[in-house]
Amino acid sequence: MSTLFVKNMVCNRCILVVQNELDKLGIDVKNIKLGEVTLTKDLTIQEKDRLEEALIPLGFEVIDDKKSQLIEKIKNIIIDLVHYQDNGVKSNLSDILSDQLHHDYNYLSNLFSEVEGTTIEKYFIAQKVEKVKELLVYDELSLSEIAWRLNYSSVAYLSNQFKKVTGLTPSHFKQIKEDKRKPLDKV
């Protein structure tokens, strides 16, 4: 059994696309989740090359070095927390990352900043703002429901953070209804 780390897998559709490519190549998969594919056996060099050739045009990339794998794991944990777990963050992001990745948060934070050119906190905020945009566009929840769902302490705090990142208030963003959202792999 071996594990592959795949860059830019940010949603369930990405999982389906990668799964489809693996199926086409006849590669047996035990488990697949955001950024990570567990295989039933190690790939040959030729299989790995064919997989990389299939994934790159689709916007994915197999990650070989340990530091890049760790960065991708950080991103995928944050994406999962923000986009797929309603009101799921009950503890500090630093504790969640340290617990799940078995590394000291200071190490993770320094590595992330060095490689990505931004902090984990700013990346987390950017993901939350993208989720707020998505929920505003869907127009199914009030701002206070969105604030609760994303664990903001208040609507005012959500609004201030949203304006700081986008330059718009949530209500102004909702009024203009233009697609100001970024794809998750571009955040």
- C-alpha Rg (nearest Å): 18 Å
Low-confidence stretches: none
**Biggest sheet descriptor:** 4 strands, antiparallel
- Using the alpha-carbon principal axes, give the shape: globular
Helix content range of the residues, please?
Answer: 55-70%
**Number of separate helices:** 9
Compact summary:
This protein has 187 residues and is an alpha+beta fold. The protein is built from nine helices and four strands. It has three domains: 2-64, Alpha-Beta Plaits; 67-122, no CATH class; 125-186, Arc Repressor Mutant, subunit A.
Q: What order do the helices and strands come in, and which of them pair?
A:
Layout: E1 2-7, H1 12-24, E2 29-33, E3 36-39, H2 45-55, E4 61-63, H3 66-84, H4 93-101, H5 105-116, H6 120-138, H7 143-149, H8 155-166, H9 170-176
Antiparallel strand pairs: 1-3, 1-4, 2-3
Helix pairs in contact: 3-5, 3-6, 6-8
What are the defining features of this structure?
187 residues, Arc Repressor Mutant, subunit A, alpha+beta, 9 helices
Protein model, in words:
58% of the residues lie in helices and 10% in strands. The protein is an alpha+beta fold and 187 residues long. The chain has three domains: 2-64, Alpha-Beta Plaits (2-Layer Sandwich), CATH 3.30.70.100; 67-122, no CATH class; 125-186, Arc Repressor Mutant, subunit A (Orthogonal Bundle), CATH 1.10.10. It has a four-stranded antiparallel sheet with strand order 2-3-1-4, with helices on both faces. Helix 3 (66-84) crosses helix 5 (105-116) and helix 3 packs parallel to helix 6. The longest helix has 19 residues, at 66-84. The chain is globular. The relative contact order is 0.11. The model has no long low-confidence stretch (mean pLDDT 90).
